[in-house]
Amino acid sequence: MIDIGLSKMALIGVVALVVIGPEKLPKVARTVGTLLGKAQRYVNDVKAEVNRSMELDELRKMKDNVESAARDVEHSIQTSAKDFEKEWSDVTSSINDAASGSTASEYDWGSSGASTVMPAYSHPRKNWRLKRGAVPQWYKSRAGVRTKAQSGAARVARFRPQKPR
């Protein structure tokens, strides 16, 4: 890297003042500053692009790792499901074999053969606030529904008869 100290910068400034002249020096300095700024922005953009590409590569690797883990989990679930189905069929076949060899009183499953299912609890859905808010404002004003709360004193003052002038 170029090692530029304060003494070298002063020497460059004096040479530029002599070569360019005092009239054109501010314009040249502005131009050089603008070019240096553009170069700095370009370097920063390149650095940002390199960082983005590195992060993108890392994200791709992470995505591949997650996908392979998901495939492994899916495979293990499928194998355990197959094992469960096999065990279930073995157990149910052994129960059916035992039930066919014994009397019906030992395995009383009910008269219809199916168990009664109780309905699930459902909330009564009391949404009176929602229903009250759904009434249009024009209907409330027409029907005389109070939409704003007032204190008793404010209501008395509102409806107090006016004194004649």
UniProtKB/TrEMBL annotation:
Major place of residence: membrane
Annotated keywords: Cell inner membrane, Cell membrane, Membrane, Protein transport, Translocation, Transmembrane, Transmembrane helix, Transport
Q: Name one GO molecular function term.
A: protein transmembrane transporter activity
**Where does the protein end up?**
Cell membrane; Membrane
UniProt membrane topology term: Single-pass membrane protein
Region of interest (Disordered), residue spans? 142-165
Gene3D superfamilies, alphabetically? 1.20.5.3310
State a GO cellular component annotated for this protein.
TAT protein transport complex
Q: Name one GO biological process term.
A: protein transport by the Tat complex
Q: Which protein family is it in?
A: Belongs to the TatB family.
Subunit organization: The Tat system comprises two distinct complexes: a TatABC complex, containing multiple copies of TatA, TatB and TatC subunits, and a separate TatA complex, containing only TatA subunits. Substrates initially bind to the TatABC complex, which probably triggers association of the separate TatA complex to form the active translocon.
The role this protein plays is:
Part of the twin-arginine translocation (Tat) system that transports large folded proteins containing a characteristic twin-arginine motif in their signal peptide across membranes. Together with TatC, TatB is part of a receptor directly interacting with Tat signal peptides. TatB may form an oligomeric binding site that transiently accommodates folded Tat precursor proteins before their translocation.
- PANTHER family named among the record's database cross-references: SEC-INDEPENDENT PROTEIN TRANSLOCASE PROTEIN TATA, CHLOROPLASTIC
This protein is called Sec-independent protein translocase protein TatB
Q: Which organism is it from?
A: Diaphorobacter ruginosibacter
